Amino acid sequence: MTNKKENLRLLISLGLAGVMVAAILWLISKVSSTIVTTSSNPTQTSSSFTNKPSLLNLGTRILVKVQTSPEKTDGVKAFAEKDFSTAVKKFTDSLKNNRNDPETLIYLNNAKIARDNLEAIKVAIVAPINFDPSLAEEILRGVAQAQNEVNNQGGINGKKLQIVIASADNREDSARLDNELVQDKSLVAAVGVRRNAEIYKEKGLVLVLPVELPNQAENTEKLDNNTVNLQPNSSTTNYLFHINPLYDNLVDTHSRYIARQARNVAICGDVRSSRDNSTSSSNQILVEKYTQAIKKYGSNVINTPCNLADKNFDPRAFVDKAIETENASGFLLMPSIRNIYFATKVAQEVKGRKPLFASETMYSATTLQNGKDLEGMVLPVYWHRNANKDNPFAKNAFQLWNAQVNQRTAGAYDALQAIIAGLKEDSTREGLQRVLSNPNFSTSGATGMIQFSPSGERQGEAMLVKIERCESCSSGTGYDFALLNKK
């Protein structure tokens, strides 16, 4: 009897031990599986490790919220479900109802490539959608037009051009976006203005800057620091290319004209403190550059402060004081694109009393909507549709978007045109850099012949435009930007 009890205890003990061993082995297998799954994917990006969604998008999300329709919503849903035939149909229907939507046109072209399972070359466009939607759409229109044209013409050496739209949701994600772009080996180039442009040099991804805006929404570093960072460097290979001449060119041309028209100039900036309050905004540096240039050409800048970003700013009090106390004989407005409204309020107070001038940020359709208050205002530009009437870009743009475009759209179009021309010669990252850096490289675009120095700069001269009344003009506002011959 005793032996039976002992045998029973032994069997129970062995059974419990077996269960424990099995449980331990199961846990080990699960942990090992998890480790293997996580580490065996060589294409993972930083987003995978932070459990955050990718900031790069081919057509699965609507980023430009003001351009939303049921058809577009159905299109991105179909794209996400890989039902590309439906996506093509829905995006096509959306464009029929709203031609002036560049995001949808880009998604439509991407969906066609996926539907037909075509070979493609992938380029990214960095758009400040959550920081400055108007600027983002202007840039997207240029990129969408260039993509649409090259794909309709057969692509790049038989491969279609696919556009990835990259957009950070907030400033904290901006650095993550740069890292995603440079680490994504399927991308051969990018178009956009970035705060950390140096990472593109370090990681070997061509970045073409479509605009030269010191107060660009996401470009909040000091302008003079950016200038230093982008100077020629013989010890490194340059991957940064400017589609327009550097901003100093605009400032100099404009300041020379202003000094001839006004002896005492009042400047209205759009000055915000930086995030850490240790440096002034890029717009403040632009104010300083204009101040120096105007003085260089013999005129004065008055001391009456004017900050369009100040919520307590009183346009009437400023204008009256500037004229009555400091004998202001001209007013220079330098708003960010988002604050054109407040610059217009200053212009309403100045109206007819003194000459008006403005920075190139006011070269937009928004400005013309207030043309009656801004008539006669002179501003500098890199591109105007009448500067070269034989160039088909402006006409083609109007037919595509059913609206006039500005120099930011032209710059984005040319940025992608330069990349397309370079990719036709070499479609690798390194090869594209060599092609664009070659002094013999050139291609035509909206802004004329495009050619870069080895340091990535482009030579060129600014133009001046003046807001004038017009009859039956295409702007639909009764006002337009007219080229000035005199500089």
Describe what this molecule looks like in 3D.
The chain is an alpha/beta fold. The chain folds into two domains: 56-245 and 392-456, Response regulator (Rossmann fold, 3-Layer(aba) Sandwich), CATH 3.40.50; 248-381 and 464-484, Rossmann fold (3-Layer(aba) Sandwich). The protein is built from 18 helices and 15 strands. The strands form four sheets. The chain has a six-stranded mixed β-sheet with strand order 1-3-2-4-5-6. Strands 8-7-9-10 form a four-stranded parallel β-sheet, sandwiched between helices. Strands 11-14-15 form a three-stranded antiparallel β-sheet. The longest helix is centred in the first third of the chain and has 38 residues, at 2-39. This is Leucine-binding protein domain-containing protein. Pfam families: Peripla_BP_6. Belongs to the leucine-binding protein family. Residues 136-459 form the Leucine-binding protein domain.
